[in-house]
Every structure is written in C-alpha cells, then in structure tokens.
Amino acid sequence: MNCKCFVLLVLMLLLAATCVPAQTFRGTVLGTVTDTSGAVVSGATIKVHNIDTGLERTTQTTADGTYSAPKLPFGKYTVTVSQSGFQTSVTSGVVVDVASERRVDVVLKPGEVAERVEVTGEVPQVDTTSAELGGILTSQTIENIPVNGRDYTKLIYLNPGVAGSPDQISDSPGSFGEFSMNGSRGRSNNYLLDGTDMNDGYRNDPAINEAGVFGDPATILPIDAVGELHVLSNYEAEYGRNSGAIVNIVTKSGTN
Fold first, then answer.
1. Rounded CA gap, 53 and 136, in Å?
2. pTM for this entry
C-alpha cells in the first residue's frame, strides 16, 4: 500500500468514527425559536424540566435560532424559553419516549421577561424528525394489558409488522427467533435493555427471560419493571447490527 492510499484510508476511518452517532435509549427535545415577524432568536435560554423527577437541562439557541436538549429520560417535560425583550414562553405536556425526538417550536412575543405565555395540553405527537416506524408501549399501557405469563416478550406482538408462530416460541421452523419483523428472519432482531446489548450469543434471542443455550435459568425481567418498550423497524443507521427489528426496553426509575 502506497502512502497516498494509506492516508486516504485513515481519513475514511476518521470520518466514519465522527459521523456515526451511538445508539441510545434516551430522548431529545429540539426546535426553533422565532419572534412574531418570523426572525430567528439566538441566545435564548431553554430549560427542559422533567415533571416527575425534577431533572432539568438548560441550553441556548444557536445563531440560526435552533436548540437541542439530548439524552433525556422518557417522561413528561415542560419547556421554558426566555430572552431579554420578550415574554417567557412555557410549553407543558411534552412527552418524550424511548429514543425519540420531540419537536417544540416556539414563537416569542415582545414584552417583559416576567410576563409568561403558557401553552397547556400535549404537543402534537407526530414525529417529523425521523422516518422510523414501529410502536411504543408505555408503563400505563403495560399495566392494563392482560399478558400471558406476565412475560414482556408477548408485548412485542402488539406492534405492527410483527409475526410469529402460534406458540410464540419461534417465527418459523428452524429459525429459533422470537418473532419476525416485516418478513426478516427471527434471528435478525436486536435486543437492548437500558441501552445495553442483551442478545443471546448463540441464537440471537433476548438473553433475558430465556432458558439459555444449555437450559440454565436466565435473568428474569418482571413485566412490572418495564417503563417503556419500543419496537423499531426502518430505523436509523445509528443502530445497525441486524436487519430485523430493534427492541429497545427501558426499565422504570424513581420519581421525586
């Protein structure tokens, strides 16, 4: 390999390392802040407050009026935007799900910072930031669903595009997968628990609530410990690894 090819290879590796985001189970609140004339407002202070836990993230809008508050645990948030010469805007009921992006665009009105404009009610839940498909089951939904054996894997079958055998043990004879997503093999799925790989190294089944390769009892995940279960298809490149579904599970945590 000559010197020119070596330098080109190094540059390609560096670009690949910097351009691919890591897979996540956290959510993001993002948006654009403008004034009533449509001009962007830079330097505005953004506070994203978790109603249940009291967690608060603070950031500012950039030169183009945009902002982003990443790595947020799932839950309900209040987004407060303030800037000198404008009334403070408060948007409540912003629901952040597992590995989701929630857009909250704000229009600031001229006035004193002490004056507040409050927007109550839930923000529209149409995701305009990605092309991902799938479904999300929240803890409230899980608590009210009668599930055979109280096994979280049965919840996966409630999502569109999921198919399996009648006994829900394998998607097809000889495949040994839990389920098939949009026709992919059952061994082509990727299971994550709180952002950590939990795939069985032999059959690529979930390593939790399974007997294991040699029939040894495995770790048990009670269904009541599941905070949210997100099954993704047509997902972003940040996940990779498999061509089937991404099963992203987040366990419950305490509140204030």
1. 21
2. 0.67
